[in-house]
Amino acid sequence: MYVVGNFIAAIAAILGYLITILTWLIIIRALISWVNPDPYNIIVQILYKITEPILAPFRRIMPLHNIGIDISPIIAILCLWFVRLFVVRTLAELAFRLR
């Protein structure tokens, strides 16, 4: 059971790091959108390709034309925090109990 506990702890740690990175990428995308970035810049294109699959479902739920401001990054970050608090902590606790 020790090996399984370590494996689950590693998954929890990697998932926590990925959520942190995604959160920062969403924040950077929101900040860049204020300055009208060049859509042909490779960094902007990569940033959009990484964050758009996360933000698109929230945009379908809350269309931009109803509010006038895109709040999908805020909702996405809140959901990522929920996943981090619930799933990552649950996996870490399960790993601790299996050791």
Summarize the structure.
The chain has 99 residues and is mostly helical. Helix content is 83%, strand content 0%. It has one domain.
Protein model, in words:
This protein is mainly alpha-helical and 99 residues long. It has one domain (2-88). Helices cover 83% and strands 0% of the residues. It has 4 helices and no strands. The longest helix is centred in the N-terminal third of the chain and has 31 residues, at 2-32. It is elongated, with a radius of gyration of 17 Å. 8% of the residues are buried. The mean pLDDT is 91.
What is the terminal-to-terminal distance? 6 Å
Rg from alpha-carbon coordinates: 17 Å
Q: Please tally the β strands and state the result.
A: 0
State the low-pLDDT regions, or none. Answer: none
Question: What portion of the residues fall into strands of 2 or more residues?
Answer: under 5%
Q: What share of residues is helical?
A: over 70%
The run of helices and strands is: HHHH
What kind of sheet is the major sheet?
none
Principal-axes shape call: elongated
DSSP helical segment count? 4
Rounded mean pLDDT score: 91
